[in-house]
Amino acid sequence: MSALAAPDAPPRWDERLRWTLSDASVIARTNLKHWVRNPAAVLNLTLYPIVMVVLFGYVLGSAMNVAGGGDYREFLMPGMFSQTMAMGVMTTMTVVSLQTARGVTDRYRSMPISRPGVVLGRAFADIVNSVLELLILLGCGLVAGWSWHRGIGDALAAVGLLLLLRFALIWVGIYLGLALTPEAASAAWLPLLPLTMLANTFVSPALLPGWLGAIAEWNPLSATVATCRMLFGNPGRQGDSWAAEHALTLAIGWPLLITLVFLPLSARRYRRLGG
Amino acid sequence: MNSYSIVAEGLGRRFGETRALDGFDLRVADGSVCALLGPNGAGKTTAVRVLTTLARPDSGRALVAGFDVARQPAEVRRRIGLAGQEAAVDEILTGRENLEMWGRLHHLRAAAARRRAGELLERFGLSEAADRRVRHYSGGMRRRLDLAAAFLQAPRVLFLDEPTTGLDPRSRTEVWRTVRGLADAGSTVLMTTQYLFEADQLARQIAVIDGGRVIADDTPERLKSLIGGDHLDLVVRDPARLGDAVAVLTGVAQAEPVADADARRLTAPVRDRVGALTTVVRELERRGIEVEDVSLRRPTLDEVFLSLTAEAAA
């Protein structure tokens, strides 16, 4: 027993940093293991983009117009990339709420575990998951005739913006996951899905009724979509609202703002969980 | 080092209008097992959450393993283990992977975590199932795995919140054996339970909690003696002789015997256990009253609990 007894001196900062990284890697690897061992999740991840590209790109796409002209599938793909990143909040939320309901979060909190480590591990696993999702979707896009036209540097910048959005939504996912029961969390796609479509993801806001178009233009998701279209060199005319004209600023600003609000909120929620 | 692993003084904790804890006092000696016994909503889980640093108390203070739960939570966390009401096990991982993961999160190196996982699987009787996914474990096996995870750092103080809730009788017995083993290994154990029999089985100290405070705190024997002495039960063969048997029992009883005519059963509290039993058996034989059963018993903890909570309510 003595060999395992807790050391008496509090750990130094470099040791704490090492623990944070070690805890993060343990949690990230466990989460990835989950994902690999869950055939439903793997299938879901690979089939979902294919189904969506076929449905929207070909079934609905054949009746779609792009404001300002251009191929609809070229217009569509940046919207789908962004929507997939946004819906990724569901993954974070579901896992966190399940862990909280099952007492895993309480065990973390009752242990000498590094709290930033828990969150970093979660974030890393989610980002890896989203990168894979994005790669599959990019592949589907290429098969469907989408491509980037402005060089690899701009294309990578667009991917960076997509992952920035996903990163910001990790904090929203953690916050909601701690607040909601697993049942409520799994029902959250219902309000979420329309929110991701009430944007410029599938249709140009210019083609929507005026008030709806205004909402769509200011939707944080629209900033990412519009900037990605620009960086990939895909079609899609911008509106003339302030939001549409400053899409790049907002595509960076919104995720930073979301992080700034939800990171402290989720940290506070974690600390005070159940009083 | 003090001789108490848990000291709680006047702990209070409200949730809105509800006082989940209301002047909660408790002392648990090093290396002992204490059962916190009470009905749903009595404050058992809140007490465990405050003592394990999961919730902050509004008032009062608590020391666990010598450290203040509100002011030195990090020190407390390095010395405790917690098994909550839900088995916090990972269904997708194997039993071994679960323990290795918790070991790494307790900052053991990979090799040490592997070794510790092996030891714990052995000790908790899970060696054979070690490499199966937890999804295929029975309820009792999950609980034992959860207890093993709580025991990972060989904590000074172990908190078990209703460790047998939802288990079938066989799994419950398995968990009891495990809890006894943990106490034998030197950990102080605070467990909560709604089962009076369970508290009696495992703990040498029972704290009865109601309305967020401890209303009685003693050994099982003393708690039982609080509501009177032993009871003598007897069952007569011939219902017609019940009246005669009452006369016999009245001679040694401290109070009027209670008769259940349908079951042909008589019960009365007696003071001198063996003396009373001998007298009764001899008298029954002399008068030719045949009996099917004669027994001496302690009052059940259910009787203790009801009488204590009724007293507290009065």
Explain what this protein looks like in three dimensions.
The complex is a heterodimer of chains A (275) and B (314). Chain A is mostly helical. Chain A has one domain (27-271). Chain A is 75% helix and 0% strand. Chain A contains twelve helices and no strands. Chain A has helices at 13-36, 39-60, 72-101, 104-109, 115-143, 151-179, 182-186, 189-197, 210-218, 220-232, 242-245, 247-271. In chain A, helix 3 packs antiparallel against helix 8 (189-197). The radius of gyration of chain A is 21 Å and the shape is elongated. Chain A starts with 12 loop residues before the first helix and ends with a helix. Chain B is an alpha/beta fold and 314 residues long. Chain B folds into two domains: 4-89 and 137-224, P-loop containing nucleotide triphosphate hydrolases (Rossmann fold, 3-Layer(aba) Sandwich); 230-297, Alpha-Beta Plaits (2-Layer Sandwich). A six-stranded mixed sheet of chain B has the order 6-7-8-3-9-10, with helices on both faces. In chain B, strands 2-1-4-5 form a four-stranded antiparallel sheet. In chain B, strand 4 and strand 5 form a beta hairpin. In chain B, helix 3 (95-105) packs across helix 4 (110-123). Chain B is elongated, with a radius of gyration of 24 Å. The two termini of chain B are 40 Å apart. The model of chain B has no long low-confidence stretch (mean pLDDT 89). Chains A and B meet through helix 1 and helix 4 of A and helix 2 and helix 3 of B.
